[in-house]
Design goal:
This protein is an alpha+beta fold. It is globular, with a radius of gyration of 14 Å. It has a 6-stranded mixed β-sheet with strand order 2-1-6-5-4-3. It has helices spanning about 5-15, 20-25, 50-60, 120-130; strands at about 30-35, 45, 70-75, 80-90, 95-105, 110-120. It has a single domain, classed as Nuclear Transport Factor 2, Chain: A (Roll), CATH 3.10.450.50.
Length: about 130
């Protein structure tokens, strides 16, 4: 039996896929932070609504609007959630494709923080590096 948060997260990712950032943020705390380690164009700590809009804007600018995300699996409990995803886009005429995990901390039933954990750091850097 899946945890109720799994369906909530799947809907949040579907909203993001439709370009609905507020729909993605609906199950998040007001100070939700999306952490992307490294030195690339989307790396940083993106907090709250303003931060997520900035992150999405940078991703779309770098990918010339071609960024897409496929949710491969979601695991969730009362303290943590993990989304296994595949990201694809075209940058400077080159197709970028890598797998990643989004590791969430859950606080009072809400998503409080997310940490991007690419499966292949070199592929991630190649995709987003400056």
């Amino acid at each position: 039996m899946s945890h109720p948060l799994e369906a909530v997260i799947r809907e949040a990712y579907a909203a993001f896929g439709r370009g609905d950032i507020d729909g993605y943020l609906a199950p998040c705390t007001p100070d939700f932070t999306f952490n992307v380690a490294g030195q690339g164009g989307i790396c940083g700590n993106w907090t709250g609504q303003k931060g997520l809009y900035e992150l999405a804007g940078k991703a779309m600018a770098i990918s010339a609007g071609t960024f897409s995300e496929e949710v491969e699996d979601v695991l969730a409990n009362d303290r943590h959630a993990v989304v296994l995803a595949r990201h694809r886009f075209v940058r400077d005429g080159s197709t970028k494709d890598y797998s990643t995990a989004h590791v969430y901390q859950v606080q009072d039933g809400k998503l409080a923080q997310c940490f991007e954990q690419p499966r292949d750091a070199a592929a991630f850097h190649d995709a987003w590096g400056s």
